[in-house]
Amino acid sequence: MKVLQHGQKHSVEFTLNGEEVEGFAEPRMLLSDFLRHEIGATGTHVGCEHGVCGACTVMMDGKAVRSCLTLAHQAEGREIRTIEGLETPDHEFNDLQQAFHENFALQCGYCTPGMLMTLSELASTGKRYTEAEVRDALSGNICRCTGYKEIVDAAMAVLGDKGQVAAE
Amino acid sequence: MKPAPFSIHIPDTIDEAVACLAEHGEEARVIAGGQSLMAMLNMRLAEPSILVDVSRLADLKKLEIGPDGLTVGAATTQAEVFHHPDLATHMPLVREALTHVGHIQTRNRGTVCGSLCHADPSAEMPLLLATLGGTVTLQSSSGTRTLSASEFQTGLLETAKQQGELCISAHFPSLPSSARWGFREIARRDGDFAIVAMACIADKGTVRLGVGGVSDAPTVEEWSDLSTADIPDALNRLAWKMGGTDDIHASARYRRELVRRIGQKLIEETLS
Ligand SMILES: Cc1cc2nc3c(=O)[nH]c(=O)nc-3n(C[C@@H](O)[C@H](O)[C@H](O)COP(=O)(O)OP(=O)(O)OC[C@H]3O[C@@H](n4cnc5c(N)ncnc54)[C@H](O)[C@@H]3O)c2cc1C
Ligand code: FES
Ligand code: FES
């Protein structure tokens, strides 16, 4: 049985956006804080820290999860994707990011990384989604600025019937 | 909003997990999906000194769905159950209810057993365990026992699980093919905990209604030969029997009214 003692920092290793990363974390450190403060990947935002707002959403082994309700040590050996990993190899926006840009799907941008990481799980399935399904999927991400319409429009531009699914 | 310090123990087997719980007693707390516990730790509503992380314990990753029902291990996530190809065939009621359990992101980590152990009065999985007459299997260093939903569900955030016991799996029986079912809930927003949630099963002249969110634990009532004209009276009596309490989300009176009104619609649509 592996034991990680409190008050001490222990090594954590995982793949972040395709690259191996290593850092040190106390057992109680949240994955959100580990990404931001230990790795310096500040694209993942932190809003409520109790699982309600969705700003901290990242992908873990291909699934959207709340990084504020996940311990850094629970990411050990996993594949984590964050907003920093969405751009294309030529450093261009990917389809979802481009659609957000074109549809004015952000104002302050605080919720945007979480919105995009949730939608990335849908995009990775290659399926088509109805507006109702997209709205349901986004129910766990709160936006205080846009009123959601533009976000849903952007998502539908990529994931809807006429949309083009983002390449994974 | 940061947890107080704790150590993490990551057992490789169920035996190691229960030995660890036996050794550390009150100090230790099981973490499965963490979708309720992590929020409590972040808000320091809980300050255990040891977390026993069973979320990756292979022996708890069970998921069996067949004509007998659903058996789900304690490390199997709500999303894994939801995406199982046979769920819709054998357990359509569970499938419907799971769409109301939080959001994609919480279902990707949250477990069915964790929800049963957490025992929120509005939670959907405890409601279905009660309505379908399921069981929960617990293991400790002194053995294993299986409890019925009514034995297990003792109240608000409270179960019959003793200190040192690990929930290893839960079983939800399937419905006979003659049965009809329905599910409805009222929540302020999609994915929020329900104010009132209800599951209805009608089969061979009996109507069974499970209600979550009013009493401290799910309440199940069964009627035989319930005529349409009798429904309002039956629901009114059930609403008063459960009582309910006021909280920031809704008054007890409003909850009882939901039982009468949504209950009526649900029973009618299940019978029709
Ligand atoms: C934004 C948000 C919305 C939500 N909405 C809903 C909702 O609508 N409906 C709903 O039902 N839930 C909802 N939840 C809670 C749900 O997501 C949790 O998954 C569930 O309540 C607990 O499951 P878990 O696996 O995450 O357990 P954890 O959080 O890991 O544990 C919960 C409790 O159960 C104990 N426990 C867990 N597993 C075991 C075990 N195997 N043996 C012994 N004890 C154990 C823990 O010690 C702890 O006390 C929501 C959560 C969030 C963050
Ligand atoms: S910061 Fe994680 S859900 Fe709000
Ligand atoms: S753009 Fe400001 S919170 Fe969504």
UniProtKB/TrEMBL annotation, chain A:
Entry keyword Metal-binding: yes
Pfam families in UniProt: Fer2, Fer2_2
Superkingdom assignment: Bacteria
Membrane spanning residue stretches: none
EC number: 1.17.5.2
Stretches assigned to the 2Fe-2S ferredoxin-type domain: 10-86
PANTHER family reported in the protein's UniProt record: OXIDOREDUCTASE WITH IRON-SULFUR SUBUNIT (PTHR44379:SF5)
Protein name: (2Fe-2S)-binding protein
